[in-house]
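Course exercise 7: structure representation. Students receive a sequence record and must write out the corresponding structure in token form. The form below is the worked example handed out in class, using Tol-Pal system protein TolB (456 residues). Read each field label carefully; the graders check that inputs and outputs are placed in the correct fields and that the protein name is recorded exactly as given.

STUDENT ID: A-19
EXERCISE PROTEIN: Tol-Pal system protein TolB
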Amino acid sequence: MKWTSEQMKSGVKKLSCLMAACALLAVGGLAPTAAAAQSGGPLRIEITDGVIEPLPFAIPEFVAEDGGSSDIARSISRVIAADLASTGLFREIPQDAFISGVSNFSSPVAYADWKAINAQALITGAVSSSGGNINVKFRVYDVFSGQPLGEGLQFAGAAGGWRRMAHKVADIVYSRITGESGYFDSRVVFVAESGPKNARRKRLAIMDYDGANVQYLTDSSALVLAPRFSPQGDRVLYTSYETGFPQVYLLDVATVGRRVLSSQEGTMTFAPRFSPDGRTVVYSLSAGGNTDLYIMDIASGQARRLTQAPSIETAPSFSPDGSKIVFESDRSGNQQLYVMPATGGEATRISFGQGRYGTPVWSPRGDLIAFTKQNAGRFHIGVMRTDGSEERLLTASFLDEGPTWSPNGRVIMFTRESQGASGEAALYSVDITGRNLRRVLTEGAASDPAWSPLLN
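STUDENT ANSWER:
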């Protein structure tokens, strides 16, 4: 999406049937001072590994500029507040603490009233509707400096896309205050589970990052595992047992059309993942009792073997620049992590702590690798540098596994399963500092999450 300060417009591709087109434009007359525009304003959260005091913000209910937009205005402001508060970096000031409200989007800000309740950031907005479409405009203010934090903007689109508009507003607010890109306007593909633990039924599902707008992509007639988004968010790779053996499938999110990616008699394929350009897939292929990594060109179907070892090589993940692959292997006697060139060749072991390591995933920033670790009867989600240094465990439980990165590399989502006959899988998220462990709300049991890129 390309934005300018005069007029910012973009068509948003239809992802499944979520929403129609949405446009982003600069709101005239809302530019901050030149210094504030260049610096982003003095209000900024410095994100470190230490304990962070959440920044208090106020978000009055968005103004409904016509009689038909009251409910949507209220809902949009609530979603924005929930997005920001869910990060653990922000704390919403309850509306019953407000000294003054906002009844007109164009009215001057009473900074003294917001300072008095210790609001450091103020978010105001307004919604209007016409013929099934809505316009959402908003501003962000640095209360203590008494200045707008960046330009006021607006979104226009179908009323049914109001949640996406809210997530986009929250992304912009998050970015202006933290200096990082946001992650709220994204989706998660996962395995929705039902039935008893010893006869669990599984099907692919897709949802907003916060659990809303669930859509099912497959039925539960066959076991499905390990869905993975393409870099464009329009396709999903996954493993299905519908033939009785694991095979990799490629699914189009919009049409739900699918095809087997690789099918060779006497072989099993699993653990697929896209390359950063979306043109190739790396996966595991098991034949004759041996499991190695292969890479395939999606267009031609031509595959090439990357590893040739008597051990099990699986769970590959590309570096963001596509030059390397991290994977798990038991070539040293138990599960450990290795990095090799994406073209194949010699692999370097990077995990050396106690226990077993698996399911490595390269951060979108390129600086960290997330993994699952099993040690002393406990499972952990952890991160390490790409050379294996600075290992840090973020969680610990009976069973934590399968990390996936948010688009900005700030948050990790994973599966946590409770123990016992009635135990079930659920999705959780945690910040890479180990803070803000949260359960992701789903309608039932859920596992194997994979985060999409930011939507276009």
